[in-house]
Amino acid sequence: MRAFFDQMLRAIWAGFLGLIITFVGSGVWGALLTVNLKTSARVPWSVVPTAGFLWLLWRYLGGAGWPRSTSESRRRSLRTNPVSGPLLGWAIVAGVLAIAALAGYWIALSQLQLVKMRPDILSDYSKYPLLTVAVIIVMGSLNSPITEEAGFRGYCQTRLEREFRAPVAVALASFFFMLAHLNQGLYWPKLLVFYLAGVTFGTIAYLANSILASIPVHILGDLTFFIFVWPRDAARRLVWDGGADAWFWIHAAQAIVFTGLTILALRRLARMSGLAFDRSRRILFESAEQ
Prior knowledge:
The structure is a single chain. By secondary structure, the protein is mostly helical. The chain has one domain. The chain is 76% helix and 0% strand. The chain contains 9 helices and no strands. It is globular and about 60 Å long.
């Protein structure tokens, strides 16, 4: 019983680390962006200090800076192991398929709830200059993936994998990832899709043993949702207001079909990951024998 309690405490600590890293990175960006839009929306100056802060945070999490005694531990926790070209390619293929499925889930499920979703920041792009919108979308699609992958698939999931089997570790890290998005509203479709997104990113990071494979997928996901999905949240008709239209069924089918394709791509990625692991282990043993 004591061992189980200690394990749970370590799991909570892992989730807390992921949340802190995410809140620090997103908090700085959010605060600067808010001030930027309220004072001088025509000049997107907030991206410059945000980029500088993001670089410093990435460097520190990767082992740079004080204290040097924790440098190696921080480097391992960030999980930025090199990824081969074929493995990265299949990770992106699986990620793109998953993004298509997640978009379908988001759109279809959002029409099944009782109230419309609250629009997010920059939901109405017409209020701001095109340059400002473009630059902010790009920065938002870099800041969140980098900080969230470092926090949840790096520092959080690597610790959870020491305590639990990989599927449990991914599921727990995804739960903490979902909690990080509670500030966007208590809408069950949102929370479910964020959880599924966490499962996708966590699985890719685990199979590739690197967040360098999950970060580009996360970036593509954010760009897709920023441009094509989130701006239309408030305008979608609820099923209860007039029945399910053709678009509802199209997006429901999209979610199901692309979920199946994602699973197939992840299975391919898993096979490639296993082959890469066996090859690395064989090279290591041959080197030791020599």
